[in-house]
Each structure stands twice: as C-alpha cells, then as structure tokens.
Amino acid sequence: MRLAELSDRSGVSPATIKYYLREGLLPAGRRVSATQAAYDETHLQRLRLVRALIQVGRVPVAAAREVLAALEDESLDHNSRLGTAVWALPHGPEPEDGDPATEVARRTADALLEHLGWPYVAELRDESPAYRMLVTAIATMTRLGYPCSVDDLAPYGRAARQLAVTDLDLMERYEPAEQLEAAVALTVLYEPVLLGLRRIAQAEESNRRFGSGRSGDSEA
Amino acid sequence: MRLAELSDRSGVSPATIKYYLREGLLPAGRRVSATQAAYDETHLQRLRLVRALIQVGRVPVAAAREVLAALEDESLDHNSRLGTAVWALPHGPEPEDGDPATEVARRTADALLEHLGWPYVAELRDESPAYRMLVTAIATMTRLGYPCSVDDLAPYGRAARQLAVTDLDLMERYEPAEQLEAAVALTVLYEPVLLGLRRIAQAEESNRRFGSGRSGDSEA
Fold first, then answer.
1. Domain span at residue B185?
2. Do A119 and B217 touch (CB under 8 A)?
C-alpha cells in the first residue's frame, strides 16, 4: 500500500508517519519509483505499536527505539525478548541508593515477591526496572508514613497476578510472529484503562459505603 | 513544632515547605514570634498529601490546590468530597468529540459499566474524568485496532473492583477526619505500585509460559 493508505488505515497523519520513518521507528517501505514506496501489513502493525508507545505511553523516541530493538533481537528467546522490550519502557524515578527508606522498601519488596511466590523477578531483582519502580513507590510511601507493609501490598500483588494472566491470554490470541508487538502495546495501552477503571470502581465503592443515595440503584 | 521539625518528620526540605506555604498548598502556621511559626500534626499530614500529589502523582500546583479545596468543601458530604478530590487529579487527554472511534468507545464504556453493574458512574458519565479517561483509552485502542470489546475489558474491571475494595478498606483504617486526605494520597501512591506489580507479574507469567528455565524455581 501507499503512504496515504497506511495513513488512512492507521489513523496516523502522513507527516507523522514520515517523522517516524526519519527517526528509524518504522522501517523504510519497498521503493517502487523514484518518489514512491510501498508498505505492507508489517508496517501497519509496527506503526500501531509506535503510536501506542509514543501517544499513550508517552515513551520518548530513544526509549521507543530500544523497545523495538529488543523485539527484533534474534539472539534472545521469546520470553527474554518480551522481558527486554517491557524493561525498556519508562518506569519512573530510580530508587535513591543509601537512603534509609529505600533500604526498608527493598526489604518490603523482597518479602512481597517471596510472599507472592514470584521467583523469576526475585532472582533478577535490581536488573528489573519494574522491581526498581516498585521499590521507589514503596520508599515514597515509607518516607511519607503511608501504609505499605507486605500485608498492605499483597492484595495489589494478587490483583496484578490476575491482570498478568489476562494480559498474556490476550497476547496469545495473536499469531506467534505478532505476539511480542501486541504484548508491549497492550502493556502500555491497558495502563490508562486500568487506572481509569480503578478510579471508577473507587467512586462506586465509596458511593456504596458512604453515598447519600444519589443513585437510586446504588444500594442494590 | 517548628519548621525544622516539620521538615525532619516529613522528609521534605525547609525550602520546599516554604514554597508550598507561599503557593497556599499548606496553611500558615500559628505565629509565635515575629520570625517564627508553630506547626501541628494537621500540617504534617497535609504536607504528606501535597508531597504524594506533586512528587508521585506529578499533579500540577493548580490541580493540587483544587484537590485540597474539594477536601475542605464543607458544603459536600463525605462521598462527594472524596469524589470531587479524586476528580481533580490529572486524568490524561480528553476524548475527541465527534471522532468515530470515540463514539464506539463511549458505547463500549457504557456497556462495560452496565456489565460490571456500576450504576453510580454510569449515571454521572461525562461529568466523571475517570469515565472520560476510560473512553480516551478505549478510543485509542479502537483506532489502532487492538482488542477492546466489553469481554476483553471486563476482567480489568473485575480486578479494578477488587482493588477499590482494598483501597477503601485501607482508607477506613484512618480516623474519619483523616480519611479523605488518606484516600486521595493512596489513590495516587498506589498507582505506580500497581503498574510496577503488573509488569513484574507479567514477567513471572511469561516466564512460566515461555521460559527457558532461567530460574530453577519457575516451573514449581
């Protein structure tokens, strides 16, 4: 297909597609004349992923390039490629080494992984950006005096386990060749869904517990 | 307590505390001399919330002021104050009115709320920023061709319901006077915890399904 059709089918403007091509986020099309190139389904799929990363995930262009490089790294197996791609996603501020709250948070995070029975990431620990993201978050709560014991955190871990099963089931609906791109895209795209649904569910639960009967059905 | 002690107990630097005082995010202390003011536990608690909002939630100062105003609005009941405060939190880009994908997303979001049995937010719909956050996210997935039917989304909704029960239980451990501040802080502080745990759980689940036995315990 021509660039115009790629734009129509992806909903991404031609100017933005050209920008992604220049930045190496999208492989060049097959040259068909001096001024035209042809694109195929793999371009469309890649474009969707790039769009998800940059627009929804607010992933910087350099990090997006790293994510894409991991997906194409044929020296890695399926699991490691997926892990490396997800690890290249932004994961917020790093833990502050040597800070007492960070040390407490590390012990809490380790005890939580042990409690949840998660040996894979427990073994990788500091190599894993998601582990460091967790430590930073627990350290902040420790510093501010908000509840963040293993018992407080465990229900969030159990919810995360269910979410991960749902995530991977969704990914496995794709053909093997498309699974990695889908997994990274869905990781990013479902984050605002999840945070939005949590706030909606909080409003429902708060109304159920404390509501003044604003909604007639709320006590049902 | 003096400003120095407020700083020690909160882990927030005196310069930052003075900035929050100037910006009206923290009420002035009780004046005890021409150059000194005294602060109490309510200042400490407020400071923790402001820190959570600004540092973790990356809430702009103006939005933080709105959140705090809602918490203090005595014309509202408990449930409405909490709702209004959470509604003032940033919630990402607005849905694009008139865009076909947004129309599809609105119908999907409504069907999802109906499916989940959430009448309170279903009734408020477009007034709710969390509903609009959900619509924007579903519209993006619709536009990019990623799976986002009611059946795809329902497991995330069920996870969100469990999370909300955990969130509100955590909040109810606080004294009534502290519950609203705690609820807003915990909404924001647990977001990176949840997203970090989801990525960790994905790595565990991916390793369980596709792993090459990198962790000896992973098949246990």
1. 100-210
2. yes
